[in-house]
Amino acid sequence: MTIRSQRRGLSLLLAALTVTLGVTGTVTPASAARTATASTPAKPTVVLVHGVFADSSGWNSTITALQQAGFPVIAAANPLRDLAGDAAYVSSIVDTIPGPVILVGHSYGGAAITNAARGHDNVKALVYVAAFAPDEGETPLELAGKFPGSKLPPSLVIRPYPGGKDGYIDPAKFREVFAADLPARQTRLMAATQRPSSVDGLSGLSGVPAWKSVPSWFVIPTADNVIPPAVQRFMAKRAGGRVKEVAGASHVVMMSRPDTVVRQILAAHAATR
């Protein structure tokens, strides 16, 4: 899918949102907020949590669409150090939000929201985007290898740092493994700016999962070379999640097919408001 067709798809989605929300003219956060105050409950804050080898900029297209539809959005800067600490960081952000929240996690960010949502009654939905949804006692690394198909393990470059080890994707393999449906020029930049994860984070044990008590939605890209689709289907099924599969999409489906990701977030909102 080209960048132009992505933008056209998002434009059509935003037009549909305008009709659905009953807002005439351009939908802006300010106008949507006035409408909500006057006649409808305030929209939930959408908290987006990125995963390993990425940062919050991967959510840019998703953020644009949600903001234009009147949703408050926070794209959390996931520390990527250890699962318990990363989940506690996301949880601390939720602590500061007085109203309803939809938590959205990509990749390892799914493991973070699975633990961060625990104990927060205002978290109304969990949305997993090519993401881990671990059960108690599981680790992301364990889940990634549960079914064959991941190209990540042989592509990792380990770099020691004081007190631990970080994992990167070999830049020469980055596009094939992480983002095969994005232009090579874009993935070269992503490879150079990738944020590593501590190996301790990827091997951290998950706690009691929030998906046992909070409804969940899943976006599963069928050409994911990081978390095999079979693993994602397994996790979605046991969580009782609503699933949308995206044929031919890579691990960074929120960048290559942002319209699908936005629709799943909207579906979560519609079902839980």
Jot down its keywords:
273 residues, alpha/beta, three-stranded antiparallel β-sheet, 12 helices, 42% helix, globular
* Unreliable residue runs: 18-39
Count of runs of 4 or more consecutive helical residues: 12
What fraction strand?
15-25%
- Strand count: 9
Shape: globular
Structural class: alpha/beta
**Gyration radius from CA atoms, angstroms:** 18 Å
Across the major sheet, the strand order is: 2-1-3-4-8-9
**Helix fraction by DSSP (H/I, runs of at least 4):** 40-55%
What is the average of the pLDDT values? 89
H/E element order = HHEHEHEHEHEEHHEHEHEHH
Biggest sheet: strands, sense, closure? 6 strands, parallel
Distance between the termini: 33 Å
Structure in words:
The protein has 273 residues and is of the alpha/beta class. It is built from twelve helices and nine strands. It has helices at 3-21, 29-39, 60-68, 83-95, 108-116, 140-144, 174-178, 184-193, 199-202, 229-239, 253-256, 258-272, and strands spanning 45-49, 73-76, 101-106, 123-129, 156-161, 164-169, 197-198, 216-221, 242-246. The strands form two sheets. It has a six-stranded parallel beta sheet, sandwiched between helices. The chain has a three-stranded antiparallel beta sheet with strand order 5-6-7. Helix 4 (83-95) crosses helix 5 (108-116). The protein starts with a helix and ends with a helix. Residues 18-39 have low confidence and may be disordered.
